[in-house]
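Render DNA topoisomerase in 3D.
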Amino acid sequence: MRLRRSNTSGAGYARRRSGRGFSYLDAAGLVIADPELRARFAALAIPPAWKEVWIAPYANGHIQATGVDAAGRRQYLYHPDWRLKQDRVKFARALELAESLPRARGYVTRCLRQSGATRERALAAAFRILDSGALRIGSDRYAEENGSHGLTTLQRSHVSVEGDTVHFAFPAKSGQSWQSSLIDPDVAAFVRDAPDDSPDAPFLAWDDDGEPRTVSAADVNEFIKLHTGGDFTAKDFRTLRGTIAAAISLAKNGPEESKRARARALTAAMQAAAEVLGNTPTIARTSYVDPRVVDAFTAGETIDPARAASAESELRRLLLL
């Protein structure tokens, strides 16, 4: 199907509560009775809690519906073909990120081993944690409205150090509790050198001539782009880490002959990805794990389990053959 770009500010259909269900209205405010249109609207499975629902006038619109969720956030439902296209781009970008990481990591290591609480060192710490720990980048709005945190909104109370191990424990997205540990002497040293170690001080703080400051999500994403040489963001690290976690799990399991054994191995792989990402296995599979890894496993191919430490290059070998 050839898609057309939706104009969510233009004419469309609306949804209105009617008894235990909903009725749908056209641009003139008339109730839709056409069974084919109503079937199309029902198939969209628009969440009942959404308000201010707008539905695309065309079945081939790239955005099929929008609405405001219970938290007051604008949400979107995309055409399946559009999502498929965007997913292909997303997973290809994650592989490109994997190729660019060795050079970027060298610069990050040099920055982390500088002395003092500099801005560049704070940005390098953020890069290393995203690269190794797959944390969400964080949003000031989410932190203020929901009390949920990501990397750039963490406070010192969310981070502790034991030797070379850095522990993270904080309320994350969707009310989940994030707990993870990272063995990294460079990041541990960065934490110990913080300009302000009071519990509510920003974790990614740096010293601006005696004035503590912190880095933002935009700062971190700009640092990523600058030192990888590509149009990457923090979310691409999560896509890459989720895919690699699943690929390593499948490699350790090895190819399976029976359908049931393959299903068990795939379940374990998605659980492994979910643990790295702090998501459910379903979200890991639908949003973060490259489906080509699953297809390769089903065809009897995995990354080399003996080369799991070089998982990025192994992943590229597997998927770009």
